[in-house]
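Researcher: Go.
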Amino acid sequence: MQGNRGTGTKPETALRSALHAAGLRFRKDFRLDRGAVKARPDVVFTKAKVAVFVDGCYWHSCPEHGTQPRSNAEYWTPKLARNVARDREQDAALREAGWTVLRIWEHVPVAEAVELVAHSVARE
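Model: Structure:
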């Protein structure tokens, strides 16, 4: 588990780099407290109130690429289910507070992700 990063993953770093190159300025790993819910999006546009999460296909149970664990399933299956439940809870709390929440899967091409984020930021 030590090798599993919480922040600074390759997909996240690639997106941040591309967003910066596109001229968008943001906060990274910025904690948003909404009552009992503490969210730490990967990229935050505070003025536009846009929170971007870059989700790994395995860790967040991607419907397209997520796989079920084969070894130690009695531990990993509930763990992955808790991750998904936490994601939904954070999404709901942030949306209730007026934030736009974007969840981008790690398999989404960077250019497509940048376009989606830029559109959301410009809209706000």
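Model: The longest strand covers residues 50-55.
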